[in-house]
Write a structure and sequence with these properties.
Elements lengths: L2 H23 L15 H9 L14
């Protein structure tokens, strides 16, 4: 492989990986008490997608 092709593949891979978190955060909202207008909405969804937070059994995120 030539250097241009390697760089192109690397750039495509890095772009895909950087967009992955955003795409997951834009997915479905598992928490009934987290609204899309909340300032922490995207962070909560991203942490949920990464398995950092799970919320409560009743579908709420919590206080």
């Amino acid at each position: 492989m030539n250097m241009k092709r390697i760089l192109a593949v690397l750039l495509a891979l890095l772009t895909a990986l950087s967009l992955n978190g955003t795409a997951l955060a834009a997915g479905s909202n598992p928490f009934r008490d987290v609204s899309a207008t909340d300032y922490f909405y995207e962070q909560v969804l991203e942490m949920s997608a990464d398995g950092v937070v799970k919320g409560y059994g009743d579908g709420s995120f919590g206080p």
